[in-house]
Write a structure and sequence with these properties.
Number of helices of chain B: 11
Strand content of chain B: 5-15%
Structural class of chain B: alpha/beta
Largest interface: A-B, 74 and 77 residues
Oligomer: heterodimer
Number of strands of chain B: 13
Distance between the termini of chain A: 22 Å
Number of strands of chain A: 12
Helix content of chain A: 40-55%
Low-confidence stretches of chain A: 446-469, 597-604
Distance between the termini of chain B: 31 Å
Mean pLDDT of chain A: 87
Strand content of chain A: under 5%
Number of helices of chain A: 30
Mean pLDDT of chain B: 83
Strand order of the largest sheet of chain A: 1-2
Low-confidence stretches of chain B: 1-39, 243-253
Chain lengths: ~600, ~450
């Protein structure tokens, strides 16, 4: 029946609106192309398709098709799919590389300032394997950075206790007594390679690097300098720069080993390499034990390195990483808009997010948390008294005007235009990014290219608004989007409180399509928690799992998502449980090879 | 490559560089007078991209003869007036499979369609194919330049990529003038690169390749290719240092750009164009792309007299309310005409930059003619009218004579929409690449030869 009414325009021959239902129908189960089928189902249900001038199915035919599609995509039994997915080889991101070098060598240098930027695709996270490319200019900068970092970490003359400590940490053996220089070097390199490769090196790997040591020594270098020369090899090696997991020639899924688990954990929770404790547990084969894993997660969250869950994960999920980089004002025209203020805004959101995890708060505190992090400059911006100094600190909120992400300057700024606020952008941010329920693409007669709509996150709003103005059928979506944004109109383009806009008193009242009325930030919080709590929990779970896996989620991950959400529901939606659920989930612990034609791209 | 020629140019440069502590531009003045080599000169290929299209009608030459000879350009093309005998303006060209700000940018040079989920531009871009065929003889197979993005979408992959090394892998791109210079004239890694280290890690990658799954092998291959590219540059650097024994310290005497991105956008763009000229002049590469901005640039061009508002907002010139979602809120316009004129002025500023490039290339002797004669400089956008989001009749020009193969000074009118893929095929063949097909096109545009 789809064939009779749809394929003429949306088939293998012709793809109006870039939609090929004929090929999509071959990809079973249909949930593989969930977004596509949801769209088809909505169009059929609303009788928007087939277009009026084309042949129409009888009402019974339409109803039958709708109910079949509804079953196929909305009642699909995800538990019947046994596929943990495949984490591909991926290069360390800029941030991961910088953190790994810091933890490996013990020096925090700005090594990546001149590295090319990592561009992002549709997953929204920079750690997504399919956008992390290895290119000559990057490798060249890695080579230079390795040299600089070794010199900085291991200076020829050690003047401070820190220098000495770093030296001891890497030079775990020294020649003398019964220990020959080669034996000492072997011990040093054996240890260093373990940490750099995040797994035990083979004897041949150590010998090869030892060769570098030997030839340097023979050329007249001192013991220390010869070791330093040898250290350059691992810092440029693909074993270091790429995260590689062992291949397994099987059609079944298999469990990753403890070394791999250590890396998955550390890059998820720390955006950095595993530390000695994780490596030791992996060596003993104990890391995968449930109680060990649980206590390691607790330890890792308590560690300061877990701040990357705020500065990287939350920043990229919620989009506030753009602040200061791409969202900023001319500081000469706007002297208040300083780099330090924008840094504080980002730090506020990142620290708030991490505090919720460390305190094991319910996920809903993202919306209604009653504390935040401020320094003097940001507190003054918010007109909150009693905070002095540059350092960010935790502040309990007494004002109802702040609290939760919706009241945070970083979010309010990144969802505004350069010189004014936009209720549409803010509303869309809440629906799409925060809740994971983006408004559907414009109706088919909107005359736009679906690709553009799909990949745009922001500027298509312009086109949508233009359509909105022209076409009544756009109202239905904007009626959902706009009220959410209207409630935040008291917050200016960088989140500053205002009573008036363009001389007129602000009206922050809003009304949802179902008739619910609410007002301002407090109203918005209440509405979101009352009506959209489940969407938030699900979205955070999906986003965090995607980040933990370094890939976009696929239909077969849905079972893991549902299982995690169910577990969260059982015990108060705690952040800590979310992380525990993720690190014990099927896709996090297992993997499975891709069928070859699928990896070649059967989705087209 | 004629060794003597190389040395004579470099030695010449050394003298100039030592004498003048001037911006790079002035060195270029001197370069033009260097004696040309005897051997026949290779053809250079460059693609310059601008986003946001041009207003309907602004890219139509004012007067041309029936046979297409360009007589007068229109007011918005005026910077090209001195070059009207050096350019071809093809009309009715388009990219049938992808257009707009994202997909159109990503596929401008691939002739394919864009899959944003899988990140796939439907093919290897024309410049990268050229690099594979003709890049073997030069220090760098190709050079991919871009200005650093501003505003939203600055790190969106599709809007920032015209060069694709594989259909799902962007070529690396360089936004820092000094880094471009260093790639051409300094040893990789500032001397930090040690061949014995490279040999070992190359071995690591080869070993890894045999152990990982088929789909992962490609990632390891990227690494292998990167190591080889660095080795190749080392080879070049080493052979240069042998020359240096005879000719003295060569490359260090060239004036190296200051680190970082110039804050003045005009200075920045000129510097990048100078790098391109320098690359072609020194034969560091014969293939170059330059994105003059990302595919949906919202940059301000307030330095152009009379222009207010951001580029993409200006491109939607029919709406003058100042209240559309990507207007900045403080700019509004009196009339559609004045807003369109500002939009045109921004395009014209970019056209002026291209004219600057053509002028530089025309000043430099290269064999029988000028460097411009031996070049194919393509300039255009993936959109026609920015407000309408037209994908047909894209603004486009081809500068240079392709070593005598093209007959410029004309508008070449195609009666039906003609795929850019045919243009790419033509350019690839003229660049010396042995290709019969590009993006589905098999017929080159013989019309460019007159």
């Amino acid at each position: 029946m789809l064939g009779r009414y749809c394929f003429r325009c949306h088939g293998a021959e012709r793809q109006r609106g870039d939609l090929d239902i004929e090929s999509a129908l071959e990809a079973r189960p249909l949930v593989k192309r969930l977004d596509l089928w949801k769209n088809v189902l909505a169009r059929l249900r609303n009788e928007e398709m087939p277009p009026r001038k084309a042949r129409q199915p009888a009402a019974a035919e339409r109803a039958g098709l709708v109910s079949w599609l509804d079953r196929e995509i909305n009642e699909f039994d995800y538990d019947s799919v046994d596929d943990p997915g495949f984490e591909p080889v991926r290069r360390l991101t800029r941030v991961e590389y910088a953190n790994t070098m810091r933890d490996l060598l013990g020096v925090d240098l700005d090594l990546v300032a001149r590295f090319p930027a990592d561009l992002s695709g549709t997953s929204g996270f920079e750690n997504s394997a399919n956008t992390l490319f290895m290119q000559p200019d990057l490798l060249e900068r890695v080579i230079t950075a390795a040299e600089d970092a070794i010199e900085a970490a291991l200076p020829a003359s050690r003047t401070t206790p820190e220098d000495e400590a770093r030296f001891r940490r890497i030079f775990v053996a020294l020649p003398g007594g019964d220990t020959s220089p080669v034996d000492a070097a072997r011990a040093i390199l054996d240890r260093f390679l373990l940490r750099a490769y995040r797994r035990p090196p083979t004897g041949a790997e150590v010998d090869e690097v030892l060769g570098q040591f030997r030839s340097a020594l023979e050329a007249g270098a001192s013991f220390e300098d010869a070791v330093k020369r040898a250290l350059r090899v691992p810092l440029v090696s693909p074993h270091f720069l790429l995260r590689v997991e062992a291949a397994c020639d099987t059609d079944a899924s298999w469990q990753i080993d403890d070394w791999e688990l250590a890396s998955r954990l550390s890059y998820f929770l720390w955006a950095s390499m595993p530390d000695d404790e994780l490596l030791e547990l992996a060596r003993r084969g104990e890391l995968g034990k449930p109680d060990v894993l649980a206590s390691q997660v607790d330890r890792m969250i308590a560690d300061r390195r877990s701040s990357t869950l705020g500065t990287v994960f939350a920043a990229q999920w919620l989009g506030f990483d753009k602040l200061g980089v791409r969202v900023r004002l001319d500081p000469i025209e706007n002297p208040w808009c300083t780099d330090t203020l924008m840094d504080a805004m980002k730090a506020e959101s990142a620290m708030f997010f991490v505090a919720l995890i460390r305190d094991d708060e319910p996920i809903t505190r993202l919306v209604d948390g009653r504390f935040t992090f401020l320094n003097e400059e940001l507190a003054r911006f918010y007109r909150i008294r009693g905070v002095t100094g540059e350092a960010m600190r935790r502040v309990a909120l007494t004002t109802p005007l702040r609290g939760g992400v919706f009241g945070q300057a970083s979010i309010l700024a990144t969802t505004s235009y350069r010189d004014r606020t936009s209720p549409v952008l803010r509303g869309r941010w809440i629906l799409a990014d925060f809740l994971g329920t983006p408004p559907p693409p414009p109706p088919p007669d909107a005359g736009e290219i679906p690709e553009e709509i799909e990949e745009n996150d922001r500027l298509t709003m312009r086109e949508k608004l233009e359509l909105h103005r022209r076409k009544p059928q756009c109202r239905s979506c904007h009626d959902q989007i706009d009220p959410l944004g209207f409630s935040l109109e008291h917050y200016g383009r960088f989140g500053r409180w205002r009573e008036r806009r363009d001389g007129r008193r602000i009206d922050a009242r809003a009304r949802l399509p179902d008739g619910t009325e609410f007002e301002g930030l407090e109203g918005l919080r209440r509405v979101i928690l009352a009506k959209r709590r489940d969407d938030l929990v699900r979205q955070l779970t999906r986003k965090m799992l995607s980040y933990a896996l370094g890939r976009q989620l696929e239909y077969y991950d849905e079972a893991a998502v549902r299982r995690a959400v169910a577990a969260l529901e059982r015990d108060g939606l705690r952040f800590r449980d979310l992380i525990r659920e993720i690190v014990t989930s099927y896709p996090f612990r297992f993997k499975k090879n891709r069928a070859t034609q699928e990896s070649a791209g059967a989705t087209r | 490559m004629n060794e003597n020629w190389r040395i004579s140019r470099r030695t010449m440069l050394r003298g100039v560089g030592a004498a003048m502590a001037l911006p790079f531009l002035d060195v270029m003045e001197a370069v033009g007078s260097v004696a040309p080599p005897a051997s026949s000169r290779p053809v250079r290929l460059a693609y310059l991209y601008i986003p946001n299209g041009t207003p309907d009608g602004s890219w139509a030459p004012k007067r041309a003869t029936r046979r297409g000879t360009l007589m007068r350009l229109n007011r918005w093309m005026r910077p090209l007036e001195p070059f009207k005998r050096d350019i071809i303006v093809p009309t009715n060209m388009w990219t049938p499979r992808g257009n707009g700000h994202g997909a159109g940018t990503a596929t401008w040079l691939t002739g394919g369609g864009y899959d944003s989920k899988r990140i796939d531009a439907g093919g290897v871009s024309a410049d990268q194919i050229a690099a594979r065929h003709v890049g073997r003889d030069t220090l760098l197979p190709s050079l991919e330049l871009s200005v650093r993005g501003e505003g939203f979408f600055s790190n969106d992959l599709a809007r920032n990529t015209i060069s694709w090394a594989a259909s799902d892998r962007p070529a690396s791109r360089e936004v820092d003038p000094r880094a471009v210079f260093d790639r051409m004239f300094r040893r990789p890694g500032e001397g930090a690169v040690d061949r014995s280290v490279l040999d070992i890690v190359l071995g690591h990658a080869r070993g890894l390749r045999g152990r990982v799954s088929a789909s992962d092998r490609r990632k390891v291959d990227e690494y292998l290719e990167s190591v080889r590219a660095i080795e190749r540059r080392l080879d070049f650097a080493d052979s240069r240092s042998r020359e240096a024994v005879r000719a003295g310290e060569l490359t260090d005497s060239l004036i190296r750009p200051r680190p970082g991105i110039p804050t003045d956008h005009r200075e920045y763009v000129r510097l990048m164009l100078d790098m391109m000229v320098l690359a072609f002049w020194s034969d560091a590469t014969r293939v170059c792309t330059f994105m003059l901005d990302h595919g949906q640039s919202n940059r301000y061009f307030n330095f152009i007299p009379g222009v207010r508002g951001t580029w993409h907002a200006l491109s939607h010139y029919r709406d003058i309310s100042g209240k559309t979602e990507d207007d900045d809120g403080k700019t509004s316009w009196d009339s559609v005409e004045s807003k369109r004129d500002m939009y045109s002025a921004v395009t014209m500023w970019h056209t002026e930059q291209v004219a600057y490039l053509l002028g530089r290339l025309r000043q430099i002797d290269d064999g029988d003619g000028t460097l411009l004669d031996n070049s194919m400089i393509v300039y255009g956008s993936s959109l026609a009218d920015g407000h309408e989001h037209d994908s047909r009749d894209l603004p486009l020009l081809v500068g240079g004579r392709a070593g005598g193969a093209f007959k410029p000074g004309r508008v070449v009118r195609f009666s039906r929409p003609t795929s850019m893929s045919r243009l790419h095929l033509t350019l690839l063949q003229r660049a010396g690449a042995d290709v019969r097909e590009f993006g589905g096109a098999t017929e080159p545009l013989n019309e460019l030869g007159g």
